[in-house]
Structure prediction request, 504 residues.
Amino acid sequence: MIGIRTAAVLVAAALAATMAPPPSEAATNGLDRFYQQRLDWKACTLNRGDEVGKALDEAGARCADVTVPLDYADPGGRTITVAISRLKASGKAPRIGTMILNGGGPGPAIDLPPYMRDLMGAAGPRYDLIGLDPRSLGRSAGVDCGWPAATWIKGPGTTRRSFDRSVSFARDLADRCARTNATLLPHISTRNIARDMDIVRGALGERRVSYNGASYGTYLGSVYATMFPGRFDRVVLDSSQDPYSWGPRLLAGTEKANERALDAWAAWAARRDGTYGLGDTRDEVLGLVQRIFAASAHRPLAIGPYRLDASMLPVVLVDNLGTDEDGARVVLAESVQVLREAAAGRPARPTPELADELAYLLTGADSRDGSGQAALICGDRTAPGDPEFYWRDVQRHRRGMFGALSHGIGPCAFWPTRPAEPPTTVAADLPALMVAATGDTRTTYPRNLIVHRLLRGSRMITLDARVHAPYQRGYPSTCVRDRVNDYLLTGHLPPHDLTCDPNA
Prediction:
C-alpha cells in the first residue's frame, strides 16, 4: 500500500527543501561562490546533430552549466563547468523534491531525466529530475585522448606474443592521454565528482536531494553519502559496486558470473536449435563458441570491414551477457551465427547490432567515451605497473572464456598521473533502497551484499535473475518496479529485505 500524506505536509516539505540555504560549511572552505552561483537555464540542443539535446528539449527539459573548481585544493584557481539537465516536476500532485540521476558506466547522464520520469511511474512527475554528466565525461570537461578504439578493455589473447601486443596497446592509450589531457587528468576522480554533485545541490538551492544511481552510480552515491552525510533524502541504488573491487581491475571476480550467464544462454540457444542452428545441447553450443574463439586466435575473423581477434572476442561476449531477457539473447545468437561464418572463412556480414558493437569496440569513433571512463577509473585507484605481474596473473586464470580477460593489463598500468587522494572508506548511515540480481555479471551479487553491510539502515530487494541494473534497465519485474516506485512516492522503506521472483 502507498502511504498517505496530506497535501499541506507535502507542500511544506517541498518549500523547505527548495528555500533552505546551502550548509554553512560552504562559506568556510572557500567554495561559497560556487554554492551560491546563479544558474542560467537554456535549451539543451548544442548543434544540429545533437540528438541528446534535441530529445531533452522535446521532453521539456532545460540545461545549465555549473561552475566548479578544477582543483578543490585550489578553489581560487582554474574552473571547469559541469553540465546538468532538469526536467521539472509537473502535474497537480505536490512536488516531492529534486533527484539527481546517474546511470553508471561511468558515462554521461544528462540524457536520463525523460527516460527516468517514465520509469518511475506516478513518482516521476513529482520530482525535479537532474541529469548530470560527471567531470571527464560528456559535456563536463570531457576527456578525449584520440584513441584508436573506444574501449580500454582488451584481452591478452592466447599467447605471449598476443599478451605483449595488449601491453603495447595499453601503453599507447595511456601515452595518448598524457599528451592531450595533462592538465585535466590529475583532477578526475569520484571524490571530485561527489564534490561537484554537492555544488550542484547547493546551486539548485536544495538542502537535501534524492538520488537514483545504477552500477558505477551506486559507488558514486555511497562515496557522496560518506563525504557529505545527511544531504541525501530518498536513495535508490541499483546493482551496487563495492568500494574494494572498484578500480582498474574491476572485472576480476566477475568471470564465474559471466561463465554461468554464457552457460545459461547456450542452454537457451540449444532449445531453439531449429531457429539458430547453433547446436541442440548446451555443450554443443558452448563447443561452437570455443571453436570460434580458437579460430580467432589463429586468424582474426573478417566480419564486414572489421577484424575480430581472440583479444576482443571475449569482450563481445561479455558485452552481450548483461541480461537474460529474450531480446538480448536473440542478438547474441544472431551474432554467433555471423561469427561462425567468419570462423569458417566464409563471407560474414554483421547484423546491425553486431556492426554497431564492433564499430564501438574496434574504432575510435567514440574515443571520448572510453577516454573519460578510463580517466576516472585510473584517477580513483592505482594499478600494478609491471607487465610481468599481469602475465603471471593471466596464466593463473586461463580456465574458462573470461578468466584471462578479467586479469589482463590496461592503460591504468601506465597512467601518467597517480590518484591525488586515497579511495574513500565507504561507511554511512544511509537508509537507501538497494536492488540486486543474483546473476548480475557486472556488479556481482556478493559485491551488492558488501555495500548493503556498509550502508547502515539500507534495505535490499533481491531479484533472482541474470541481469545488471534491473530497475533502471526496465527489466520486466513488476515486483521490483512497484516496490521501488512506492518508496520514491512515500519515502517508506520496506520493513526488511525481500526477494522478488523474476516472473512476478
